C-alpha cells in the first residue's frame, strides 16, 4: 500500500450506535477522500459484509473491523480488531457472549433513570435501536436529547450516563485476553482504542499496554477523534516505547453528534508503523 494514506479505521453504523447505515458511511468516507476504511461496530460484525460490498462498489479499500467492550481493572476499555475473518465462528460466539448482558442492563438503566424522574427511557431508547442485539447508552442519550431533558449527547453522559451518575449501570464485559484472542485467531490485528479516554494511573496504564501486548495485541490508536493534539503526541511516544503499530480513526457516529468527520484527521507521525502495513494481505 502506498503512503501516506487517508485511512479511517474506526466508525459506527446503525448495526451498533451510529445513525448511518454501512452503505451511507461508505459513501461518506469515499466523498471525504478516505482511501482505506473500516467499520468498527461495538461487539458486532453484522454490518461487515454490507460495508465491504459498499466499499468495493465505490472502489474504496476496506479492512474488516469491530470494537470489543472489555473490562480491565474495573474499567471499560475498547479493543478494536482489524483485518480478521468476519465469518469466523469463534469471533461470532465471543461477541454474542459480550453482547449478552446489554438487554438486562438497558432495562435496569430505565429503572434507574425512572428513580430520578425520567420515565419511559427504556422504551424511548428502543426507538433508536437499529439492531435488536445491540442497545447501548448512546440510544438512551438520543432519547434524553429528543425528550428535552438534555441539550446534546455529551450533556446526557455528563449528567446521567457516565460512571457514578444516576443512569449508569456497571457491567462486566469481555476479558482483555479473550478479546485479543478472538481477533488474532481469526487473522486480525488488535488495537487499543482511544487510550486517553480511560484515565488510568501510570501503573495501570502500563499494565494495560504490557498485558495487551503479552496477549498478542499489536496496535494502538494514536490519531483519533477522541484525542487532543497533546494526547496524540503522548500515545505516539507510548507506541514507540512498546513497539506498537499506530492506528488512525475518527470514531464517527453521526453527522449530528460527532465532532470529527470520516477521514478528517491529522496524519500519523511519519516515524510510526501504520497498523495497515501489518494488514496488506487482509485489505479487500
Ligand atoms: P455502551 O457500550 O452501551 O456502554 O455505550 C458506550 C458508547 O457511549 C460509546 O461507544 C460512545 O458512543 C458513547 N459515549 C460514551 N461516553 C460518551 C460521552 N461522554 N459523550 C458522548 N458519547 C459517549
Ligand atoms: Mn459508540
Ligand atoms: Mn470506544
Ligand atoms: Mn467507537
What does this structure look like?
The model has no long low-confidence stretch (mean pLDDT 97). It is built from ten helices and eight strands. The chain is globular and about 50 Å long. With 284 residues, the protein is of the alpha/beta class. Strands 4-5-6-7-8 form a five-stranded mixed β-sheet. The protein has a three-stranded parallel β-sheet with strand order 1-2-3, with helices on one face. The structure holds adenosine monophosphate and manganese (II) ion (3 copies). One manganese (II) ion binds next to loops.
Sketch the topology as an H/E string, one letter per element. Answer: EHEHEEEHHHHHHEHEHE
**Computed structural class:** alpha/beta
Main pleated-sheet profile:
5 strands, mixed
Provide the β-strand percentage band: 5-15%
Q: Mind telling me the C-alpha Rg?
A: 18 Å
Helix content: 25-40%
Q: How are strands sequenced across the largest beta sheet?
A: 4-5-6-7-8
User: Average pLDDT across residues?
Assistant: 97
Number of helical stretches of at least 4 residues: 10
Total strand count, please?
8
User: Whole-Å distance between the termini?
Assistant: 12 Å
Shape: globular
Low-confidence stretches: none
Hetero compounds: adenosine monophosphate, manganese (II) ion
Amino acid at each position: 500500500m502506498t503512503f501516506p494514506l487517508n485511512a479511517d479505521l474506526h466508525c459506527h453504523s446503525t448495526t451498533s450506535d451510529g445513525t448511518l447505515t454501512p452503505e451511507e458511511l461508505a459513501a461518506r468516507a469515499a466523498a471525504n477522500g478516505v482511501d482505506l476504511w473500516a467499520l468498527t461496530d461495538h461487539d458486532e460484525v453484522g454490518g461487515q459484509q454490507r460495508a465491504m460490498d459498499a466499499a468495493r462498489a465505490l472502489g474504496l479499500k476496506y479492512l474488516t473491523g469491530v470494537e470489543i467492550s472489555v473490562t480491565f481493572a474495573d474499567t471499560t476499555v475498547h479493543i478494536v480488531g482489524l483485518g480478521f475473518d468476519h465469518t469466523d465462528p469463534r469471533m461470532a460466539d465471543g461477541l454474542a457472549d459480550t453482547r449478552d448482558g446489554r438487554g438486562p442492563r438497558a432495562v435496569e438503566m430505565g429503572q434507574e433513570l425512572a428513580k430520578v424522574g425520567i420515565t419511559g427511557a427504556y422504551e424511548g431508547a428502543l426507538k433508536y435501536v437499529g439492531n435488536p442485539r445491540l442497545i447501548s447508552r448512546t440510544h438512551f442519550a438520543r432519547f434524553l436529547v429528543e425528550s428535552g431533558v438534555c441539550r446534546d449527547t455529551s450533556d446526557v453522559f455528563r449528567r446521567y450516563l457516565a460512571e457514578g451518575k444516576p443512569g449508569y449501570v456497571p457491567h462486566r464485559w469481555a476479558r482483555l485476553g479473550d478479546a485479543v484472542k478472538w481477533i488474532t485467531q481469526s487473522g486480525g490485528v488488535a488495537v487499543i482504542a482511544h487510550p486517553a479516554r480511560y484515565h488510568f494511573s501510570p501503573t495501570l496504564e502500563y499494565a494495560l499496554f504490557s498485558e495487551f501486548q503479552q496477549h498478542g495485541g499489536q496496535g494502538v490508536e494514536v490519531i483519533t477523534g477522541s484525542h487532543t493534539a497533546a494526547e496524540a503526541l503522548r500515545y505516539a511516544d507510548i507506541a514507540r516505547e512498546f513497539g506498537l503499530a499506530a492506528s488512525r480513526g475518527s470514531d464517527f457516529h453521526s453527522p449530528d453528534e460527532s465532532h470529527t468527520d470520516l477521514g478528517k484527521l491529522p496524519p500519523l507521525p511519519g516515524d510510526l508503523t501504520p497498523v495497515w502495513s501489518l494488514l496488506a494481505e487482509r485489505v479487500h
